[in-house]
TrEMBL record:
SUPFAM superfamilies: PX domain. Residues 1-32 are annotated as: Disordered. This is Endosomal/vacuolar adapter protein YPT35. One of its GO terms (cellular component) is endosome membrane. CDD domains: PX_YPT35. Residues 23-32 have a biased composition (Basic and acidic residues). Belongs to the YPT35 family. Residues 78-192 form the PX domain. PROSITE patterns: PX (PS50195). It comes from the Eukaryota. Its main location: membrane. Pfam families: PX (PF00787). It comes from Brettanomyces naardenensis (Yeast). The lineage of its organism: Eukaryota, Fungi, Dikarya, Ascomycota, Saccharomycotina.
Length: 192
């Protein structure tokens, strides 16, 4: 008569098989992890490819070039100028300031995007008034804030945005001012 395997023996065998399978899987994972680490160390010795930014929009938006600001005598190089929503930036020493994004639509079909602070508009206005005030009328920029005004409230920022946009259009659409070195500098420099 053949012995009948007991239930206890079959459980021990299945546990032993399961444990052996688990050890084999752990060994495979550890070996693949070590191989992966070796591959990563090789990658660390390869220098990264330099990052470059390309604007692939159909509008051709970019920082301007000198040739975009060229116009025939007595004509302007800009068709329109818009100022978008402001960005409020935290500056040094806990102070904040507003940065305005400006889009200038040129007669060549390109869009020049720049960012300027309120003070940049004031500096441009001062330079233009000093040099060209006798030739053409130059509007005042919108007034600064009073100490009791919240200069970051949405209502105030929208009023200032509209006033700055109107003022800048009065400059870039004026043939006597649009091609001046001061306006070109304001438009073409990363920081004014």
């Amino acid at each position: 008569m053949s012995p009948i395997p007991s239930r206890e023996n079959s459980n021990k065998n299945s546990i032993a098989e399961s444990s052996a399978n688990q050890h084999a899987e752990d060994r495979k994972r550890r070996d693949s992890h070590i191989e992966g680490r070796a591959a990563l160390s090789i990658l660390n010795t390869v220098p990264p490819v330099p990052i470059s930014l390309h604007d692939n929009t159909e509008s051709g938006s970019y920082l301007g070039r000198e040739e975009d600001l060229v116009a025939e005598e007595g004509k302007v190089w800009c068709k329109n100028c818009t100022i978008g929503d402001p960005s409020i930036i935290s500056g040094y020493n806990g102070g904040k300031y507003t940065l305005w994004t400006i889009e200038l639509f040129t007669t060549r079909g390109t869009i020049i995007k720049i960012r300027r602070r309120y003070n940049d508009f004031g500096r441009l206005r001062t330079k233009l008034a000093d040099k060209y005030g006798g030739i053409t009328y130059i509007l005042e920029i919108p007034p600064g804030t009073y100490f009791y005004q919240d200069r970051f409230s949405p209502r105030f920022l929208e009023e200032r945005r509209r006033a700055l946009e109107y003022w800048l259009n009065s400059i870039v659409l004026n043939p006597a001012l649009a091609s001046t070195p001061e306006v070109k500098y304001f438009v073409l420099r990363k920081k004014y």
